[in-house]
Structure formats: structure tokens, C-alpha cells
Design a protein that fits this description.
Length: 97
């Protein structure tokens, strides 16, 4: 569903292919522009694992992204693909020193 937010088969994972989401996911505070094809808002480690496994199976590039405040273009999807936002992961569940 291009241009809309939708829940994936995992109820907590939100897929957004709207023009505004892709535009925002394609740049960070450096203002360098990439080319995101999909934007996913993950809310758990399980979400991230599933997305990364699916990207690997399909040969789809992905970028993990925080708030997009970086100035070094580290969150920019230079080769297209999926931007996985980690902003929904806002709790520390375990610390393993």
C-alpha cells in the first residue's frame, strides 16, 4: 500500500512508504540525501531481527536509524532499501556486562 502506514504481520512493526516518511528517512542532520524505499518503525529486538533476516534473504540493503540527528550521514540509505527506525525501542530490558 504505497503512500500509507500499515501494520505488518507482526502487530508492533509499522511499515510506511508514504512520500513524507521516505523523504525524512532518506536524510539525517547532515542533509545528505539517500534513497529509502521503505521505512519500518521497530519496537522490539524481535522486530529488528525479523527485518534484518528478511533483508538478508532478499539481498535488500538496510540501515538502522536512531533519531536521525547525526552529522556524518551514517543513517543514510545510500543504496536504497529499508530504513529501520529504532526510535520505538525506548526501554532497557537487560544489561550483559
Amino acid at each position: 500500500m504505497v503512500g500509507r502506514r500499515q501494520r505488518t504481520s507482526n502487530a508492533d512493526l509499522v511499515l510506511d512508504r508514504s512520500p513524507i516518511a521516505l523523504e525524512l528517512a532518506s536524510r539525517d542532520a547532515s542533509n545528505i540525501r539517500g534513497a529509502a524505499e521503505s521505512f519500518l518503525l521497530a519496537s522490539s529486538v524481535t522486530d529488528v531481527v525479523r527485518v534484518v533476516q528478511e533483508c538478508h534473504r532478499n539481498g535488500t540493503p538496510f540501515v538502522a536509524r536512531g533519531a536521525g540527528t547525526g552529522l556524518a550521514a551514517g543513517a543514510i540509505p545510500n543504496h536504497g532499501g529499508v530504513v529501520v527506525s529504532l526510535m520505538g525501542m525506548n526501554q532497557i530490558r537487560e544489561i550483559n556486562p
